[in-house]
Amino acid sequence: MTIARHRLAVGHVVGAMVALIVVLALISPLYGYHRDELYFRMLPLAWGYTDQPPLAPLLVHGVTAVWGDSVVAVRIIPIVCAAASLPLLTLITREVGGSRLAQAFTAWGVAGATMTLMFGHVFLTASLDLVVWPATLYFVIRAVLREEGCWWLVAGAIVGASSFNKLLIVVLLIGVAIGLAICGPRQWFRSGWLYGAVVLIFVLALPNLLYQATHGWPQFAMGAALGAENAAEVRTMMWPFLVLLVGPVLAVFWVTALVALFRRTEWRPLRWLAVTLVVTVVFVFLAATQFYYSAGILGVLTAMGSVPIAEWARTRARRLIVSVLLAVNALGCAVTSLPLLPVDWFGASGLASVNSATADQVGWERYVEQIDEVAAAFDADAIIASNYGEAGALDRFGSGVPVFSGHNALFDLGAPPPDAQTVVIVGGQYDRVESLFSTCRVVTELDNGVGVENEEQGEPVALCSGPNAPWEDLWPQFRHLD
Questions:
Q1: What is the distance between the alpha carbons of residues 310 and 6, in angstroms, rounded to a whole number?
Q2: For the chain, which has fewer Cβ within 10 Å, the N-terminal or C-terminal residue?
Q3: For residue 407, which phi and psi values (nearest 5 degrees)?
């Protein structure tokens, strides 16, 4: 059955993009850097790292070289990704038969979704996934519905290029393959276009695969470490976040899309999308690394759900109901995912317990002042941070005392110099490493001063002297992946 494709709702798409860009640009300097942004900024350029491929640090170095070393410059990247996701998702709505009204619901609705706002405000590797997953699935959907195999090559090129950001895209490929095998159309497994796309993915991803192979496949070790640490939380939080990632109103959209996949004859060739969602959710549960990995497929299903929702909203009253609900959804998502409250109100609100991304933007400069005071008072030779957030903040705001950390890729940057005798030990590693020195004592505790509970709040700052072995022997005991 041929699907009628309506004109693209350009006005609504552009309007939603402009509104989203304005909001994200206005709030970009609020609170401060996220820990991941500080990490990307601190990492030297390389072909790869213990915990990620090279693209995110490369982009941060690029934008700060052009627009200056500021949090506003770093956040140009996620703003562009968030804005670019809107036309992609709207094109998916159009591709599956969505009217201009359905396209408007997608553009304005997704502009206010938690995942769009959160990953569009803070630069995380997930920010790039706002574009990668919808773009990949758009061209796969286009290939399947139009029976035009050349679009598999475009999807393959996107997947291969995205391997420079993260390797999670493999989960999407597995989901699509299993979905096609179960639900069809299976004739694509006999298509040279599909296998050409696989070859293209391999060729483009080869530098990252070679890095992994020549460095002992660190991504597997990293994934295992994340799963061991996060399993209980992820397996609990992943279920409500199937709703919270888009907001409760848009969750109705993606559920509606799942139902429609098995009711609408013209969507029969796309039933593999339901299996892809299941595969993604199962992966999140089993790997237990991060609860938001299902965001990409949820966005695509939400865009498809706009079609039956728009068909229901035939009357002016129903259109008004949907529009009001989308506005309320956007407001709720914005309050819970963006730094809209004064920072001391945010601390008192309790939102930090459900929005760690915003909590992790609070207090870095104050923490650095407290650490630097200890280092200066005791003429420390080096500072050893527990995690890349602390290390990145000290690198960005510190007074110049050399900073080291055994966390993830920072371990590979090396240990303190051989003659370092007095060091400041920061954070939760203190109990684990105090026995490595002849004397250690806690001097103060980190306090952001605004009551925001985050990973650094209340952590010790200790002074340690007299390492009991050469640093080259001690340094492996500071290493940790999480």
A1: 13
A2: N
A3: -85, 125
State how far the Cα of 260 lies from the Cα of 266, in Å rounded to an integer. 10
The 3-state DSSP class for residue 465 equals strand
pTM, two decimal places: 0.94
Q: What is the 8-class DSSP label of residue 480?
A: B
User: Cβ(475)–Cβ(406) under 8 Å?
Assistant: yes
Residues 410 and 250: their CA atoms lie apart, in Å, by 39
For 267-283, letters b (16+ CB in 10 Å) and e give: bebbbbbbbbbbbbbeb
List Cβ neighbours of 350 (8 Å cut-off, separation of 6 or more): none
Of the candidates 443, 426, 413, the one whose C-alpha atom is nearest the C-alpha of residue 368 is 426
Is 190 buried (19+), middle (13-18) or exposed (0-12) by CB count in 10 A? Answer: exposed
Under DSSP, is residue 467 helix (H, G, I), strand (E, B) or coil?
strand
> β-pairing, 437-445 with 422-426?
unpaired
The residue among 122, 109, 113, 160 whose CA lies nearest residue 139 is: 160
Backbone angles phi, psi at 230, to 5 degrees: -100, -5
Tens digit of pLDDT for each residue in 50-95?
Answer: 989 999 999 999 999 999 999 999 999 999 999 999 999 999 999 9
Decide: 162 and 169 in contact? Cβ < 8 Å: yes
What is the bridge-based pairing of β-strands 460-467 and 437-445?
antiparallel
Task: Give the tokens for residue 421.
Answer: 């005798």
Task: Check whether 1 has a pLDDT greater than 60.
Answer: no
Phi-psi region of 381 (alpha: psi -120 to 50; beta: other; left: phi over 0): alpha
Residues 6+ apart with CB under 8 A from 78: 24, 119, 120, 121, 122, 123, 124, 127, 130
Residue 227 structure tokens? 């799963």
Nearest alpha carbon to residue 339 among 84, 81, 109, 71: 71
- For residue 472, the number of C-alpha atoms closer than 13 Å in the C-beta half-sphere is 1
Distance CA 424, CA 460 (A): 10
Assess whether pLDDT exceeds 80 at residue 228: no
Question: d(Cα 304, Cα 103) in Å, to the nearest integer?
Answer: 9
Strand (E) positions, 375-459?
382-385, 403-405, 422-426, 437-445
CB 282 within 8 A of CB 175: no
Report yes or no: 251 and 151 within 8 Å, Cβ to Cβ.
Answer: no
156 close to 202: Cβ distance less than 8 angstroms = no
Strands 422-426 and 460-467: antiparallel
